[in-house]
Structures are given as structure tokens and as C-alpha cells.
Amino acid sequence: MTARLLFASTLVLALAACTPSTSDEAAIDDASSDDGAMSDVAAVDAELLDEDAAGDDTGTMDDAADDEGDDAGLPQMDIYLANISWSDQIPSIDAPVNATNHPGYDNQPAFAANSHDLYYSAETDAGTTDVFLFGDASDEIFQITDTPDDGEFSPRELGDASGIAFLHQDADGVQHVTRSDFAGENRSAVLDLDPVGYFAFSGDGEQIAMFVLTEPFTLQVADLATGAVEIVYENIDRALYTTTDGMGAIFTTPRDGDEGFRAMYYSFTDGEIEYLFDLPGVSQDYALVDAPDGLVGAFASSDGTLFYRTTNDIDWTPIADLSAYGLEGITRMAVSDDSAKLAIVAAE
Length: 348
Fold this sequence. Notes:
The structure is a single chain. This protein has three helices and 25 strands. By secondary structure, it is mainly beta. Strands 1, 2, 3, 24 and 25 form a five-stranded antiparallel β-sheet that branches.
């Protein structure tokens, strides 16, 4: 990473500026698994997958874009890019530009390391999804995988720069986290666990946190050296990302008593789980960023407004009216390593 990073403990203490209520703390205790048992993931039937309004990796629609879905069930989305400017540690963006501009599903952006090139998943003429790369310097789009009978979702570069990882879904619906070289070749399953919806590697590549489609959905963490898998949290939702320092993963879980979500921190170092903050409105999507002052911040959106907060903030600050740019149905976001470019997924 090119920006300054924080140790995981500092991230937890600072991002948790909004102290969770007693009910939040109770929910953490109730939902966390303390038996340390190895997990045998039961098969999830098709009905559960169809009812998963949040699981766009499984071929169902994002909850913020239910009305935008095509006949195949994938939401019709595009990825927009905006430049980020910083003044007194407060970000602003210029007008987002449609980078993919392609009919159908373009989603799940992730920037390449130290670059403005962007990996993402897109629907093809075959009706399935493949991994693509948007080249920022040339404005060209390159197809990385070509699997007309299968699907690939959630592509991202591996931390050791040895290739990419993505979720591979075969024709029978079996879903594994898979790694490959940068050309999408020489594939191998990261571990034998199915069905995985989303994933986040530790910075050293030795562990992986996974959103697993059990009932209820669970956060499971695997030691890749031993293959040991542990259920660490129950009743999670889809937004799962590695922290900017690689020491932990942040995931979402429904708030008690309303339709919103809260962000939680899992430490790859000691397995501890901490409450971080509530997300604005009913959104569960966010993007982490290293701010110029060395603090870790986050972007989120609600009702067409882009919000930002740093580790010193208690509340979210509105910084842009995305609806004024014609963006609707906003879901996922991503920030480049140099904190200069924001990717936004919005309905076509």
C-alpha cells in the first residue's frame, strides 16, 4: 500500500468512536461462536439461494437493485469512476464517469495493487459472468477469464502479487474461492469449502475469512496452511473486506430493531471481534480508504448521497450528491491504494 497504515488495534479503537449500545454488545456475544469446532458446511438448497436478496455472487440480485434485475436474475449495473481530491483531510469527488458502459451486469470492483486498473465481474453473451480488467491508462477493457458454462465473481489481486483470486461457480452451482495467474489460467481451489459467497484474505495470505451460505449465513475463517476452518460469527451479511493494513477483516451484520447494518471487525491476529460503526441509512456497502492524515476512513452511500467518516469522526459527513450525477441504486464501492480514485456501482 502506498498510503500510511494503522495497526489493527488502533483501527478498532478509533473506528469504534460510536460506542455500541448494550444490545450491540449482547448481540456480539450471542452471535459469536466460541466452540472452536471445525465446520462442516451443510448443503444449501436452491430455495435459500433464491431468497438471498444480498447474494449477487450466487446469481441473485443486490437488495438495492431488486427492480433492476434482468430475466436471468442479475442486476443491470455499471461501474463508475471518480477522482478523489483531499482538502484538510476531507474528500471530494468530481463527476463520476461510466467506465464499463456495458448492458447487463458489471459489479464487484477491486483495484489492482498500486494502480487505477480495476478488476470486476461482468455478464457475457453466454449469460454467465467472467473476470474483466479495466485499464485506466488506456480506457480499454480486457477479458481475463472465458468460461461460458461457469461464472466468476469477486475478483481481486492476491496480496503476494502472484495472481488473482475470485469466486468460481460451476454449472452445478458449486462455489469455491479459486486462485489463478493474471491470465486466469493455472487455477486451483484455495480450499475445499462450498458454498462460499464472499471472501477476504489476510495481508500475509495465510488466512481467509469467508461469507458462507449456511443458514443463517456465517463468517468462517480458514488457516490455509492447515486447512482448519472455524465458524466465528453467525447472521452476517455480504459486505466483507480486508482492512487496509491486512491485519483484519470488516464485515456487516443486521442492526437490532431496524433495517440498517453495522460494521464489525475480525482480527486475523487473535480472533477477536469488535463493533466498529453503524452504516448510514439501510445501506450495507462501504469502502475503506487510507486518508492523507494517516487515519483509516470509509465511504458509504444512502439515498443517493455519498458519505465519509474517518477514525476520528463520530458521525458520517455527506460529501457528494450522487443522484445529481444520475447515479441510482448504488451498492458496492472500492478505493485505489493511493486514495485518489473511487469506483461506484450503480444501476444502469
